[in-house]
Amino acid sequence: MSANESENVWMRIWSQAKLDILPGWDELSELIYYILSSFTRNVRGMLVLEEGSGTGRISLRLAKEGEVILLDTSPDALEYSKGRAREMGANTYFVRGSIFNLPLRDSTLNLIWNSGVLEHYRFDRQQQAIDEALRVLQEKGRLVVIVPNKKAIFYNFFRVLNIKLGRWKFGYEKPLSSEELYTFSPKPNSHQSVGVLYQFRFITLPILGFLLNKMLNLLNQFIPHLRKLDKKYARTGHLVAALWIKTAGVSM
Fold this sequence. Notes:
Blueprint: H1 3-16, H2 27-40, E1 47-51, H3 57-62, E2 67-72, H4 75-88, E3 92-96, E4 109-115, H5 123-136, E5 137-148, H6 153-164, H7 178-181, E6 190-194, H8 206-219, H9 223-232, E7 239-245
Parallel strand pairs: 1-2, 1-4, 2-3, 4-5
Antiparallel strand pairs: 5-7, 6-7
């Protein structure tokens, strides 16, 4: 699938979304926020860009500490996040644009991140997006890429099953492994995986899925213990993330 085809899928999803019932802060938000916090510690005083921002809910929380830019190709997504930003009084800017051609000057940002974006493109386009992000980062700036994990067995089984049944609405998607993240150039500085139990949310068998969701809702009261579980079974979490730190030797 080409970049334009993938973006068209998400433009359609956003144009048809029931914006009044979109989730606010949820379990997935918590997982992503945990990754960002562990890679960046805090964003106080930083200029932050989220690529493919969607609802923008995580970046709007980051905007309490730093200055945030939300970038998306969908005007509907940006309008939704603008409304949320007004409600929260968040220090946020909104840009309609592509991750492959960022409308920003070289060496201007401290942190760029995206989640649930790169897996919708082929390798050459993924590399192009990473190159473009590194271009606009300042020296020692950080790039965080978060994608579904190829080694999350239950997530991938039910993803493929839903594709076979014609229930998959997100277009082309190819989860990545931690090893595949290191095939990009330059290689990331580090990586991690989280959400060992979260992938069970994707089990679509009616009774089993209902029972597992109830169990997970109870377990979420013990988040510190879940983080220990993520570390023990780090290779199989629902999400895998990579961190790049731009050095003086990186020129795009």
